[in-house]
Each structure stands twice: as structure tokens, then as C-alpha cells.
Amino acid sequence: MKIVLPGGTGQVGTILDRALSAAGHEVLVLTRRPRRPQDVAWDGAALGPWAEAVDGADVVVNLAGRSVSCRYTPENLRAMMDSRVDSTRVVGEAIAAARRPPKVWLQMSTATVYAHRFDAANDEATGVIGGTESGVPDYWAYSVEIAKNWERTQAEAPTPDTRKVALRAAMVMSPDRGGVFDVLLRLARLGLGGPVAGGGQYVSWIHDEDFVRAVEFLIAREDVAGAVNLAAPGPLPQREFMRVLRRTWGVPVGLPATRWMAEAGAFALRSDTELLLKSRRVVPSRLRDAGFAFAWPGWEGAAGDLVRRARAARAGPGRLRARVGGG
């Protein structure tokens, strides 16, 4: 298949590009900084010659958007909104103008669209959309608005011949340097991977191999459209999540952190505490109902695999590249 990945140079895009290319597909990456023959220049905001890559493609997986790994200042929040909405709009315009539009358009979204809650899990049918919770920072509601506008822009795009799926993805766990797992593992190795603000907030996650397999599954399943949660079926409280990770690496102790300590740490890392403190309890009902079987449904097994691969990467980077590319 010919697969186009707008914004495919980030962590998730790199995972997909590597795996889909290794599987024999023709993968084109739309990027502002093309470096390879398969990279196509675009600005993520206006139609241009790049749209020719979409015409005749089998699949588009749009991953474009400013990274959430930053301080949530008004300027950065606006950049997150604009980059996601503008890129989704212009991908829709390219598909609408194509003589041979792709059969399916998978659009990245986020599990952050759901409410901060502890009482029950959020699935696609009964999950509570966030934005009106009490006792949380006001700007958390803006993160939900970003997700809602992201999905709305795809849903409203006039592409009647293209099936549309919104990927409400949890944190994708991969041992690649700079990804979320790499950051969490570094904290655990330093003895800092203890409970944050009590650790009761839920962590939703998905192993990188299952993320790729879910994307391939959704491409093939012509009967699935709309929002789909991409999350492992076993979300768990942050304190337990980090306890498993510490034990798997062999670190006996993880220092706890209060809310203000988390604020200080996030500031030092140029990140934001929403990533640590929001309870994302998300389950993949539509995937499982459609017959998708997770290779890594539980965190203990997934953490073991990721730690093995992280150790292999430190011993020799080529070993990691071959392992992930074969997934």
C-alpha cells in the first residue's frame, strides 16, 4: 500500500514509518524539514504540491501537531490548537480535491479528550468528555477543546469516499530516546519514579507494537469509523505503574513527589504537570469488540519487553532498530 504520514517525524510517526516501511509498504512522510527521498515538504497549513502525494494513496495517517511536551503557556496552547486544526483541515482539503482519494483517513487524536476521573473507565460509548471537572486547573479544559476541535475538523471534512477514524491514543510506550517511556524510565533509574501527588491518578498507555498493529487493523477493517480508543485494556494508578517499571529495571525505591514538587520538576523539564496529574482511565472497547487482540494487554509484560529493548539499545543501537522495525 501507499501510505502518507503527515507530521510523521515525531516519536509516533517514527514508530509507524519504521514498522510500515519494514512491512513493505510505500511510506511518504509530509514534513517541514524533508531530509530523505521519501520525505515531502509541506507547511501543515495550506495546499501545495505535497497534495499530489495524497492523490492515489491508499491510506493517510495524519499525526501532525505541536508536541505536548512543553510548558502549557497561552502561546504554546494556541500553537497546539492551530497546528492540529490547520493540518487536519488542509489534509481534508487535499483528500477532497483528489481524483483518487484514499480509502481511509486515520486522524491522530488523544485520550486527553476524556474527563479527569477515578470512579470508572472511559470507553467510546459511555466515556465522559472532559472540560467541566471541578478542582482541576482551568487550562485543562483547553486541552479538551483542542482534542474536540481536532476531531470535529476531521468529521466535518467533505470526503464522502474516504472512511474516517479518529485515534484517541493513550501514551505510546517505546524505548526510543526522547519518548515518554524513555523519560519515565530515566526518572525510575534516578530513584525519582515514586507516587506523584499520591499516585492515585490513572495512567493509560499502549505498547508501540500494539499501536502499530491497531493502526494496521483499523486500515483493514472497513466497517470501523469514528472515534476509537488506542489504549491497552489495563490502565492502572500511577503509583502502581511506576512500581512495576522500577521493579522491572531493578530499582528498589522511588521517591514520592508532592504536587508542588511535580510542578518544579515539570518546569525544569520544560513540560507540564497535566501529563502527570490528570487521571486518564481509558479502555479500548471498540477495538476489542471488533476482534483486536492485544499482544501486550498488561503493563508488567509490556514493561518487561520495553526494558529489555531499552537495555539492548544501550548495548547497541542497531539491535533496537531491527527489533522495532520488525513489529
Task: Describe the protein's architecture and organization.
With 327 residues, the chain is an alpha/beta fold. It has a 7-stranded parallel beta sheet with strand order 3-2-1-4-5-6-10, sandwiched between helices. Helix 5 (180-189) packs across helix 7 (238-249). Strand 5, helix 4 (139-156) and strand 6 (163-169) form a beta-alpha-beta unit. Residues 318-327 have low confidence and may be disordered. 42% of the residues lie in helices and 14% in strands.
Give a quick summary of the entry.
With 327 residues, the protein is α/β, with parallel strands linked by helices. The protein contains twelve helices and eleven strands.
Head-to-tail CA distance between termini: 17 Å
Would you tell me the structural class of the helices and strands?
alpha/beta
Which of globular, elongated, flat, extended, rod-shaped describes the shape?
globular
Number of helices: 12
Helix content: 40-55%
The strand count comes to 11
Mean pLDDT: 91
Q: Going across the major beta sheet, what is the strand order?
A: 3-2-1-4-5-6-10
Beta-strand percentage? 5-15%
Instruction: State the order of secondary-structure elements, H for helix, E for strand.
Output: EHEEHEHEHEEHEEHEEHHHHHH
Gyration radius, in Å: 19 Å
Unreliable stretches: 318-327
Largest sheet, in brief, is:
7 strands, parallel
